[in-house]
Records
---
Amino acid sequence: METKKVKKTKYLEQRRVFSEAVQRSVVKDVEQGKCTVIQASHELGVCIQTIYNWIYRYSRHLIKNRVMVVEDKSEAYRSQELERRIKDLEAALGRKQMEVDLLSKIIDLANEEFKTDLKKNLSKEPSSDSESKNEPPTTTK
């Protein structure tokens, strides 16, 4: 039995050059989700890397070496909710700080007016005589 060696010949393919308009339309279709990179490469008869090169060159969104973070909708909503809560708490803290500053200023003005130190006087506990004076009088029948 005689075996023949079949010589594999490579057929030369004609080099094709795609216009910029065609390249941009392919990139636009991939960005909009009308087709995938693999589908576009099969349709045009080019390798996948060629399509990716076009994407890197003409895409507005898909940029090389950019990391896209994908979150679940609930995570994004929770993040927004927490940011809103932080903003509300910071506003409340600011209001309380303004209130403390106002009360401190009132105490300082009262100290100047009455020539006394209200901060020291307010920090002392009332004496036992003053407690009995503050009690309402008892009525007898």
Note: Residues 37 and 43 are 10 Å apart (CA to CA).
---
Amino acid sequence: MGSIGSARNGIGFEDKAPMSPRGLRQPLSSTTILFCSIVLLSEITAHAQRNVAPAERTRGSEQVVVGHVSSVDPVWRTNDFGDRLITSIVHVTVEETLKGTAPPSVDVEVEGGTIGSLTLRVSDLETFALGERAVFYLQHSRRGTLVPHLRGLGIQKIDQAGRIRGSNVTLDDVRREVRAAAGQ
């Protein structure tokens, strides 16, 4: 073996014997365990976020409405923290008010959207398409605009069967829970 600084290896480090197959497996095993742990933790977190009860979502909301998206207009906005972001103004035709008072339509600001060829996707917020129905748990931002309460937890999309997307919870179940939590 060469010594430190020898010309034999050309880089000034001591030559070492090649790693044994066991030596190679150990780092891969640790890496695999770390990767699997991260994936599992993110799945548990995502599952926990989706399973927050409507009553809990309702508590801090100023308004809870059921409605459908009549249009989505992406604009540049400065958020409450001073960041300039693409924000979608989601125009919601209100079908039903479950908490608070709401006009026949509301504009909800949701971070993310596309302006020209530039798209901003926000991992904890939904994107919207024309005609989609949802339960919107709303609060006012510091600037006075309506935003989803608890960010992504402030939106529960409704599928064609009248269930909360990705669950067995019906819109009627949500209505009951929201009204009970709102004291109505």
Note: Residues 21-50 form the longest helix (30 residues).
---
Amino acid sequence: MTERMTDQPLADQATGRKLVIAAAADLPPGTRMEVRVGNNLIAVFNIAGTYYAIYGRCPHQFAPLSRGRLQGTVICNAQTNWETEWAHEGEVLVCPGHAMEFLVKTGQAIGYNLKLRTYPVYEEDGQVVLIA
């Protein structure tokens, strides 16, 4: 997986604004980047051609989530008839600090009643646009 990281501040740091963060060609499937908006870090991922953005710091000890690995996870619940099953391949972000897992699509922590903030992000006219 190719990774792209940047910590360059954006010109427009107002919240709730439409921000162009990269050319779509610079964020192909399987890549991610770290974006600073004001004092906040936002981790942006391209998973199989769909963009996702979540708050970029782990709530445990504030490790930068954009640097974590993407993988799947084991689930065991009523939907799997209480059998263990590998799920969410390539959609689970593992914190690089202490291995806490988050579903990138929703920001939900796995095994905890905790959810990271998510941000709208999409492609428009060949640019990746973040609403933050």
Note: The domain at 18-131 is CATH 2.102.10.10 (Rieske Iron-sulfur Protein).
